[in-house]
Amino acid sequence: MSLSLRPISPEEHLAFIKGLPSASHMQVPAWGGVKAEWGSESLGWFDAAGNIVGSALVLYRQVPKVKKYLAYMPEGPVIDWYDENLQRWLDPMLAHLKRKGAFAVKMGPPAVIRRWDSATIKKAIADDTAKALADVQPAFFDPRAEGLARRLRASGWQQDNSGGAGFGDVQPRYVFQVPLAGRSLDDILKGFNQLWRRNIKKAEKAGVEVVQGGYDQLPIFHEIYKVTAERDHFIPRPLSYFQRMWQALNAEDPNRMRLYLAVHEGEALSATTMLTVGQHVWYSYGASANHKRHVQPNNAIQWRMMQDAYAMGASVYDLRGIGGSLDKDDHLFGLIQFKLGTGGQAAEYIGEWDFPINKLMYKAFDLYMSRR
Questions:
Q1: Is the N end or the C end of the chain the one with fewer CB atoms within 10 Å?
Q2: Which residues of 113-130 are buried (b: 16+ CB within 10 A; e: fewer)?
Q3: Which Pfam families does this entry report, sorted A to Z (predicted)?
Q4: DSSP per residue, 192-222
Q5: Which strands, in side-by-side order, build the sheet including 102-107?
Q6: pLDDT in tens, the chain (372 residues)
Q7: Model-level pTM?
């Protein structure tokens, strides 16, 4: 049975997303308002009865001086990725994007191919038996995701693995998640390692209070975030980005974005943002001061967010990206080491895929991006 595709209104798009257990926060219509430097469009797939059965938020980045665009669907589109006839979804999408002037399409199927539990990863690190997650036996493997990757490649989609997995894609291929469904809060806390539990108690004993902030507290978050950027050597986003994110996302749903502050003796030492779509909660941005680290505000703020996610009925608390390396000398090793303490799982998505519509322009753009 064929499917039709057409642009849909933000209201139609949001109504479809609300009918699902979850979808990526980058596939809700309001995300187009966050990415103001991109154009955006909501698309819907319809069955023969006229029912909407899939959606996409497409971001368009124009090539300078030419009316040609990179069409990007981060962590999307939201379709049946395991349909045996995948082309009935992808062919009308590519035809529409070509008509819109796209020279290439980038998408990120939200398909998990492998999962590893914390205990297995810790053992591999301790025994020095693996230098990468890919070398560790997974606790879960989905052959459907592997088959999906084969089908995409066979139909002309490309994937650049030259930079390795992890942060080689625009969105992280490896993420770290704490399952919440079917567990008690006590069970979740017991899943933390001893250091995490001890640090949570330290923070409580020291008088660290984790509070929920609002739009007016975003400048406090941003000042700490700038400190973090200088310490960790990355370029910080401007305050206006987070203000725009708050306004766009919370206009769509008042619980879409939250701000948390870990306060000690009247001073915010740590701050985080949290995003929610359906039963999926993400730790989005985090920031911490350079001083008073001994009162452990970071562990305290994460535990509070997990508790709130649990109270909201979330099935998973997503700590977002980690690198794929288990090498202790790797610059991202500290990231996975911190997140392993939650007792959660590392998950590998099949990554992002490109479809060159204009191959010459695609090669030129790829060369331009590689030199940036």
A1: C
A2: bbbbebebbbebbeeeeb
A3: FemAB
A4: S-HHHHHHHHHHHHHT-EEEEE-GGGHHHHH
A5: 4-7, 39-46, 52-62, 69-73, 102-107, 353-356
A6: 899 999 999 999 999 999 999 999 999 999 999 999 999 999 999 999 999 999 999 999 998 888 999 999 999 999 999 999 999 999 999 999 999 999 999 999 999 999 999 999 999 999 999 999 999 999 999 999 999 999 999 999 999 754 433 334 589 999 999 999 999 999 999 999 999 999 999 999 999 999 999 999 999 999 999 999 999 999 999 999 999 999 999 999 999 999 999 999 999 999 999 999 999 999 999 999 999 999 999 999 999 999 999 999 999 999 999 999 999 999 889 999 999 999 999 999 999 999 999 999 998 887 777 776
A7: 0.94
Give φ, ψ of 96 to 5 degrees. -65, -45
Task: Encode burial over 176-193: b for 16+ CB neighbours within 10 A, e otherwise.
Answer: bbbbbeeeeeeebbebbe
Domains of the chain: 4-108+352-371 (3.40.630.30), 112-349 (3.40.630.30)
Radius of gyration, CA atoms only, the chain: 21
Q: Which of 341, 336, 337, 232 is nearest to 287 (CA)?
A: 232
